[in-house]
Specification:
Blueprint: H1 18-71, E1 75-79, E2 86-92, E3 98-104, E4 112-113, E5 115-121, E6 129-137, E7 146-159, H2 163-166, E8 178-185, E9 192-195, E10 199-209, E11 219-228
Antiparallel strand pairs: 1-5, 2-3, 4-9, 5-6, 6-7, 7-8, 8-10, 9-10, 10-11
Amino acid sequence: MNRHALPSRRSGTAGYTLLEILVTTALLGLLGVGLFSLFLQSLNLFHFDSAKLRVNRDIRTFTSEMTDNATYANYFMIFPDFETRTQTSTVDDGDGTPVSVTVDASLNDGLSGDMLVLVYTDVDSPSKINRLVGYYRDADDEDTEGPVRTFDIAINPSSTAPIWTLLPPVNSRGNWPEVIEISKGLADGKLFYNFRDRSVMVKGQIIHRGGIGKTRYERATNTYNFTVAPRG
C-alpha cells in the first residue's frame, strides 16, 4: 500500500496585514503631497524670478527708447491723461470783457500727468509740427495700475494747428501698443513730472505677475526714475 505524504506548510510566508497596507498607503500619500508641494514652490520661484527678469528688461527697453526719442524732439508737453486735452480759460478780449476760450490742458512746471507728448517740428519751419511721439499710462485714475502705451504719428504735411487737435482720438486709448505691461505712477500718483519746463522726470513702478494661481510670489516689482530732455 502506497502512502502519499501531505505537503507541509512552509513557515514565514504570511501576507501583509490590512493595517500594514493602510499605514504604507498613508505614508506614500504624505510623501506624494510633500513632493507635489515642493514642486509647486519651485515652480512659483521660477515664475517669480522670470517676472523679475522681465521687469528689468522692460525698464531698460523703456528708458532707452524714450531717451532716444527725446533726444531728437524739439520740446515736450505733459497732459493730465490720455483723454484730457483741453481746458477752458478766461481771457480779456481787449475791451475789458472776459471771454472764455479753449486752450490745451498741458501742465506747467512742478505738475505731474499721465501722458507725455514729444513734439518734432519742421527743420525749415520751426512753427510747423511734423511728428508726435506720446507715452501714456492707460489707467482709469491715479490709484489704479495699467499698462504704459505709446503712439508715433507722422504729421504730413506739417501743421501749425494746436497740438491737441493732432493727438490720436480719445476713444483709441486702448488701441496703441504696450511698452510696459503694468505700471503705477509715483509722481503724485502720475507718471511724468514737469521739471522747470526743461526736462521730464519719469517716476513709476513696473509690475509683473508670477506664480501658480497668482497667490504666492504674486507680483515682481521694481521702480524706475530717470529724466529725459528734448534737445532739438
